[in-house]
From TrEMBL:
Chain residues that bind a divalent metal cation: D16, E17, D108
Gene source species: Olivibacter ginsenosidimutans
Protein name: Ribonuclease HII
Sorted UniProt keywords: Cytoplasm, Endonuclease, Hydrolase, Manganese, Metal-binding, Nuclease
NCBIfam families: PRK00015.1-3
PANTHER family reported for this sequence: RIBONUCLEASE H2 SUBUNIT A, RIBONUCLEASE HII
Cross-referenced CDD domains: RNase_HII_bacteria_HII_like
The EC number(s) this enzyme carries: 3.1.26.4
Domain RNase H type-2: start-end pairs: 10-200
Role according to the record: Endonuclease that specifically degrades the RNA of RNA-DNA hybrids.
Chief site of localization: cytoplasm
Native organism taxonomy: Bacteria, Pseudomonadati, Bacteroidota, Sphingobacteriia, Sphingobacteriales
Enzyme type, top EC level: hydrolase
Catalytic function, reaction form: Endonucleolytic cleavage to 5'-phosphomonoester
Co-factor requirement: Mn(2+); Mg(2+)
Length: 200
């Protein structure tokens, strides 16, 4: 079972992002504040769940959370400031949109750009350890999937209904055949996709 809190002194928000390794579309991020008593036996890292489970859990998260918010950084912003900084920007925008100011921030991963003067903790694989981060991963993933589905009808040649912008073989071949759409990240490699981040 995932842990409900990292610490007990401050009001805690979990943050995560989705779409970092995609060739197209924004990177999405979410922030979630749960009551400290919140528990759920199925809630877990979004990658461990089916699409149906994620959407069912989204309703529960949005009903039970004290506050939640979803935000994004565009493909243009990703090209301008790089995917790492764009991920931080999306998380900061989500935190900005919370109806309750977080007093402590939990972030999935090992890097984060400080948000205002609020203390934070980076937790590797945090989406499989803390409920608020798992919830944020689900919101970021489902809202991004919805966004890519809406774009897919404008550009069916890229198969975004299936790949959501990730670098599948079919997606890469479509880019080589049809060229880049306005929604593609121009700084990402198509034939040798940039799937990991450099922290240098």
């Amino acid at each position: 079972m995932l842990l409900s809190t990292f610490q007990h002194e401050y009001l805690e928000a979990g943050c995560d992002e989705a779409g970092r390794g995609c060739l197209a579309g924004p990177v999405f991020a979410a922030a979630v504040i749960f009551p400290c008593t919140f528990q759920h036996e199925i809630l877990n890292d979004s990658k461990m769940l089916s699409a149906a489970q994620r959407y069912n859990l989204r309703e529960i998260i949005e009903t039970e959370a004290l506050a939640f918010a979803v935000a994004s950084a565009s493909a243009e912003e990703i090209d301008q400031i790089n995917i790492l900084n764009a991920s931080f920007l999306a998380m900061h925008r989500a935190l900005d949109s919370l109806k309750i100011l977080a007093e402590y921030i939990l972030v999935d991963g090992n890097r984060f750009k400080k948000y205002k003067s609020i203390p934070h903790q980076c937790i590797v694989k945090g989406d499989s350890k803390y409920l608020s981060i798992a919830a944020a991963s689900i919101l970021a993933k489902t809202y991004r999937d919805d966004y890519m589905d809406s774009l897919a009808h404008q550009h069916p040649e890229y198969d975004w209904l299936q790949n959501k912008g990730y670098p599948t073989k079919k997606h890469r071949e479509a880019v080589l055949k049809h060229g880049l759409s306005p929604h593609h990240r121009k700084t990402f490699r198509i034939t040798d996709p940039q799937l990991s981040l450099s922290f240098i």
